[in-house]
Amino acid sequence: MDDTPSGGTVPPGAVEAAPPPAMIKADLLAGLFFLVLGAATFEGAWTMDRLEVRRINPLTVPGLVPGLLALALLVCGLILTLRSVRTAAPGGWSDLGQAIVSTAAQRAGAVLVLTLGYTLVLVGLLPFWLATGLFVFAFIMVFEAWLATPRRTVMQTLPWAVGLALVTAIVVTLVFERLFLVRLP
Questions:
Q1: How many CA atoms lie within 13 A of 168 on its CB side?
Q2: Less crowded by CB within 10 Å, the N or C end of the chain?
């Protein structure tokens, strides 16, 4: 096998390019966030009812999957934090500020706002099918008419968003209620 980058191996003496300082700081902040989120989720899963009174099998307790996911989040957050600390490079926090206001960060922020709005506000306040339909509609409108490159007009996006929102709300509701036998809020 040849030792060229195109041959799949790194030549001897070649150094891997270091990530930009803004990414290192962003990784540090994200890693710390995931550590806190994982710890809070694990605590919630650990204190969740075990249902021993109902003689529920310990492998089917409600907190098992969230607890395992929280442990995975903790491991990933720890790896991300340690990696960013290990590869720390010079660069001011202004680099991080520029990364935060980038297009990718705006998209991530929009996803965060939409999903938290759906789970914390809409579900429970509205019937599930309506909350799901509104979420899908808003998601399509935001990412097609506002954050898309190139942007589509609202009139181009509206029929597509309404159609997908209706179909998704109906299908998801029926699948959960009829197939999985879940009572939805």
A1: 17
A2: N
